[in-house]
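Thread: Modeling a multi-component assembly for a lab meeting

Hi all, long-time lurker, first post. My supervisor asked me to bring a structural picture of a complex we are working on to next week's group meeting, and I have zero experience with this. I have the sequence lines for every component (535 residues in total). Could someone generate the structure of the whole assembly? Inputs are pasted exactly as I received them:
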Amino acid sequence: MRLELNNLNVRTHAGEALVKNLSLTIESGSVLALVGASGSGKSLTCSALFDVLPRNLIYSCERTLNGENITGRALRGKHMACIMQNPSSAFNPVQTMAQHCHETLIAVGIKDQAVITQAMLDAGLDDWQTVLALYPFQMSGGMLQRMMLALALMSQAPILIADEPTTDLDLVVQRHILNRLKKVIEKRQLALMIITHDFAVVAQLADRVAIMHRGEIVENTRVTQLFEQPQHPISQQLLTAHLALYAEETHD
Amino acid sequence: MTDNVFLQLKNVGKTYAATSFWQRKVGKQVLSDINLSICSQQSIALVGASGSGKSTLCRLILGLEPVNHGEIYHNGKAFSDFARDDWQAYRRDVQLVFQDSIAAINPRQRIQQVLCEPLHYLRGLSANQCVREAARLLDKVELPASSMEKRAGQLSGGQLQRICIARALAAKPKLIALDESLSGLDVLLQQQIIALLQDIQQQDGTSMLLVTHDLRLVDKFCQQVVVLDDGQLVEQRPAKSSEPWSSKMGRELSEAILPARPPIRKPLEQSYVPETQECEALV
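Re: Modeling a multi-component assembly
Sure thing. I ran the full set together rather than chain by chain. Output:
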């Protein structure tokens, strides 16, 4: 499975370019991290990929799945699922987890109920029977984020897009979620694109990294390469800021 | 040590009463038996996982919520004995910077109004003095003077967080509480704001009360670390110490910090590379 997004341009009606000539590739079994400071256009790229940009923006792009052109509408749900940033607002507050699961299954046309169990176990919800009966407000942020992963897995989509999946969670929960994502990707051979501004997450999870700045990808390279030799000044700046957080430990 | 204690907490506890129409429920104990002293010019970090009661403790210290058990003393005087004047003075001495800067600023006010409000009400300056002081504050947080006329929607998240810090500084506080104020920002902004706070700390001798779950931030500007777990104070120790954490939560939090660099991936010659600690932790 190989998804390519080519020549993405997003601009406002006033003519201000928000994303310029952006191209990226997501492949099965590998993790691409899209990194940049806030306001660099990471989330716009993600929305454009799903064809869910706000109406007041004009955009154009080409999406190809395994070499064939595909629309954003045909792509989402069946081929591509999303994990949102804020788990507490991504669920319907008056539906139980079981209802969320069934809705997903109906949407993708799967009848087999065993898919639910399998997806929830893979997402790290071992106590799935209890969880299915819960409403979103009865669950913690970490549990909701795991449930969101389970819903994404349930749809059997081979491509996952995670938009800042751990930014709102505390570090202990973040670690659990990242470990779980890593295992699932290996087990199911999924393609993952993770959007983040945390280089520690990039280091832990990603294989390739694309650095964004003002709507453009300024560097697209292997993660190990980036940490050894960042080429672009923006990458260097971001990496220095990240490593400064660890300054005390590296001196020891 | 004892003469410059700014705040002292004795056996402080907090219970939220769960009121339900249909049944009588027992209150939920959020904090129990907290003993803590904060000296003037000393910065303290409150750390813990989510739900450990660190934000509640911060709100209690600021006097935003009443305590149910125990007592908090400010310069030797108990909160329960505070008169109206005392509260006013205390609220001038302590200021809070929230996590969500966008929600913390009135979107209909211009930045000048946001900054002049505390100057007028807490320091009693005249209109002209307010404007001059506001300009000075804006300069201190390294924002251009042109932002004075803007509204919240026209500024970015990082700029707004600086406005929040400027607003907290307006009252010339002795203690600034930062409730997860650095967590949502990207690395560059975080770096800038840390530098700004360090400056303020050194220039004015302001104490900081940092509420966070990220131990990496603690060493940047705190002398003491207090670990909370499930409403209990489980560990208190100086920051920047290399001793192992004695509490379970302290260990858990320090392990949760992801390594700065990518782990050594398994290359072709697998037997050659020893399993690093990072690799083990991932399994």
